[in-house]
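User: Fold this; tokens only.

Assistant: Input:
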Amino acid sequence: MAESHRETVNSIRGLRNVFGRQIVHENLDLDVYRGEILGVVGGSGTGKSVLLRTIIGLHRPTAGTITVLGKEIGRLSEAEWRRLQSRWGVLFQSGALFSSLTVAQNIMAPLKEHTSLPKGLVAELVDLKIRMVGLPPDAASKYPSQLSGGMRKRAGLARALALDPEILFLDEPTAGLDPIGAAAFDSLILNLRQSLGLTVFMVTHDLDSLHAICDRIAVLVDKRVKVGLMADHLQDEHPWVREYFHGPRARAALVV
């Protein structure tokens, strides 16, 4: 489908992020389309995670506008902001689970914050989310410290999916996983996108993930983004882009 006919669920215009004397983003524009998996890559210091945190309101930009699901962030009342937050889910790199809560209690947290559902229904939804991300039933009663790294990622994903979001934000979801675990997590994200109709904004450094599941790739260079298909970036002559997509770790990206 032509991009001009696709529904934009996240629009960024003229974004500027500055930390002290360091300009991280300058006049950055980006559109995210409904139903796509967008991979976001870039070198160290290019502000991949900063971009994600800015979109979800954890960082206030110096300039620019951000519109998510038709709502311009920065112009919302507190009640409107809470409603918008309930329409997306976030998985941070570490999982960001509450260490003092069980997996089930972690998944319950957004349900308790944003809904007034009866306890019985909440418990059923928690069980559903645990099954949805491929965790065994007994994971519900375990604490994050009792889980492997891969299981913590899945538990964090279950919490991100608790409110049936329209957009899923992922920050380095396969970081720290072995190749088998990373491939399994990629497949899980792809299946969830297909079954739930999710839009996925994924910050990653993993070329295998980009090749396996991303529809488009946004590359952060020179304080802005270059957005395109894998084939577009493979032909790009920008020094960093060329080194990244043709370097020694890029074999998966080059497989036809």
